[in-house]
Amino acid sequence: MDGNMNGMGAGPVGPDQTETQVIDTASVMPAADATTTAAAGQAVPAQAPGKRKHGRGRVVLAALIALCVVGAGSGFAVWRHGVRAAQAEAVQAEQTRQAAYDACAKAQSDAQTALEAYQNAVADSQTVAATDPSTLADSSALDALNSARTSPAVSPDACRADLGADALDALTDSWKSAAAAWTQGAGDIQSASQAVSDAQAAKARQDRVDALNQKISEARALLDSSDGQVADAQTRFTLTDAINAAQAIVDDQSSSADAFDQASSGLDAAMGSVNDSIARKQADDAAAAQAAAQAAAAQAQAQRQAAVSGSATGRRQAAGTSRAATGTSGSTSRSATSGGAASGSAPAPATSGNTGTSGGSSSSTYVPHGRVMHYGCGDTPEECIAKYGGTYDGTNPFID
């Protein structure tokens, strides 16, 4: 088109330039008549009829040329508008594709950052994930952690510059979804890790509470059973204070592990003091009982010795009196017999058994050689000898 326009002696023409050419061609057309020109106040020379026809031809030719020029200009303008519209559309499409690529690249970069954060969270939670479930108050927290440590998304395809805008838009959405999943996964790992730590701390505290409660129960039982059984009552007061302090630690939800340990140690010390005081009192009571028994035995022994001494003295006095009376009677009898007997024979020996009028004790028997056997002195000869003294001939005990 441009070549044709150049062949025609004209370059690309815009709309304004075409209008100017139309106006210029009107200037070569002849006036309608002399009268009109004269009316305009101008002098018009007279023209010959032949020249008028020739002038009309030129006017027609100029008009045709003008129409061609106008048509050519309009066609060129339409063509140029189409080219420019296509170019603008192409530019717009490229800009759209470029924007889609930029958005996809950014979404991919953000997702990569989220993935790295998620992977770091997985690594940081490795130790917590290995926690023994038996050390947790609630093992479901550990299950949630292990679930969160499983990747929640798969990496989409990479963004490429040769892809169209629609494909790039789809990839952008995929990368954004993956980034959101990884971000959520990292948060879930952190939350689950904290939950596991909290469950472990809760279990440890509950174990300390249970142990201290058990010791408090033992201390209360000892306090009740030791009433009146201690050598030092102050030890029971100290135990009461230790029990109250330990109970306060149990009731306080913010009590530390050290506080539990100190309370437990305090109870151990207080109970130890009470038990020592109980043992000391038992030893003192046993010693006092032994001393009392020894004193009672000594007193009984003294009483027995006093009774034995008094009885022996009485028996010796009674024996002396009996011997004296017997000697007098025998002498008298012998004198009477000697003086009055016709035959002069000796008196018959005394018969065994009580002498009756001999003056001896009813509890003793006359025995040859001047010895007296005492009856009722004990169950055995040994007891009689032990109680009254004397000798034992293998058959009967005798006392002098």
Write structural notes for this entry:
The protein has 400 residues and is mainly α. 71% of the residues lie in helices and 3% in strands. It contains ten helices and four strands, in the order αααααααααββαββ. The strands form two sheets. Strands 1-2 form a two-stranded antiparallel ribbon. The chain has a two-stranded antiparallel ribbon with strand order 3-4. β3 (391-392) and β4 (397-398) form a beta hairpin. The longest helix is centred in the C-terminal third of the chain and has 84 residues, at 257-340. It is rod-shaped and about 215 Å long. The model is unreliable at 1-50 and 328-375 (pLDDT under 50).
The tally of helices reads 10
For the residues shown, what is the average pLDDT? 74
Main sheet? 2 strands, antiparallel
Task: Give unreliable regions as ranges.
Answer: 1-50, 328-375
Q: How many DSSP E strands?
A: 4
Give the helix/strand class.
mainly alpha
Q: Report the helical percentage.
A: over 70%
Order of helices and strands: HHHHHHHHHEEHEE
State Rg: 74 Å
Oligomer: single chain
What attributes does this structure have?
mainly alpha, two-stranded antiparallel ribbon, 10 helices, 400 residues, disordered N terminus
